[in-house]
Design brief:
Largest sheet: none
Structural class: mainly alpha
Order of helices and strands: HH
Mean pLDDT: 81
Helix content: over 70%
Radius of gyration: 72 Å
Distance between the termini: 214 Å
Length: about 190
């Protein structure tokens, strides 16, 4: 039965305690006693729960304060970490930018050197071609002059040979004339004998 009363007290809405001023006839005192009898345990239970709620609220408020402090610390740490990482990233970006600029400068310098080498090689090639052309021309001229001289010498030798042959022919003709004259005389002398 007691459990039924406790269950009934839990289901019934809490009735605020109303202070009834004690009356002259003593009814107020009896009414307070009746009220204490009917609602006393419920009021004590509500007062205990209220005290527990106040303690829990104080503990929750303390935990909220701790949580806010920890969140604030965490936020500060995160901000510091973010700023450190941002600075690191900025530094790395600057280093990369400097490295890229240095690499571009080196590439530009290498390109300039390569262009200069190509121009020098072209100039040397052109100069070599001109020198080779001049050498070939001078050797061709020298060979042409030597060939012309040999031609003249050969022509002179041929002419000399022809002159010698002609003079030798003339001697033969004279010889044949002489022999013919001798043959004629011999015939005449045979005929005269």
């Amino acid at each position: 039965m007691r459990q039924k009363l406790e269950a009934l007290e839990r289901t019934q809405p809490a009735v605020p305690a109303v202070e009834v001023p004690p009356s002259q006839d003593g009814l107020g005192g009896e009414l307070a006693k009746v009220r204490d009898i009917l609602f006393g345990s419920h009021l004590l239970d509500c007062d205990g729960r209220f005290a527990q709620l106040q303690q829990q609220q104080a503990r929750v408020a303390e935990l909220c304060g701790d949580l806010q402090r920890q969140v604030g610390l965490l936020e500060r740490e995160l901000k510091n970490e973010v700023s450190v990482l941002t600075e690191q990233m900025r530094g790395e970006r600057e280093q990369r930018r400097a490295s890229v600029e240095e690499a571009l400068d080196k590439l530009s310098q290498l390109r300039s050197e390569l262009d200069e080498r190509i121009q020098r090689t072209d100039a040397l090639g052109e100069q070599g071609r001109r020198d080779l052309h001049d050498q070939i021309l001078s050797q061709t001229n020298a060979l042409g002059a030597a060939l012309e001289k040999r031609h003249e010498e050969a022509t002179e030798m041929i002419a000399q040979g022809l002159r010698e042959l002609r003079s030798a022919k003339t001697d033969r003709a004279t010889l044949s004339g002489l022999l013919a004259d001798l043959a004629k005389r011999l015939q005449e002398s045979k005929q005269s004998d």
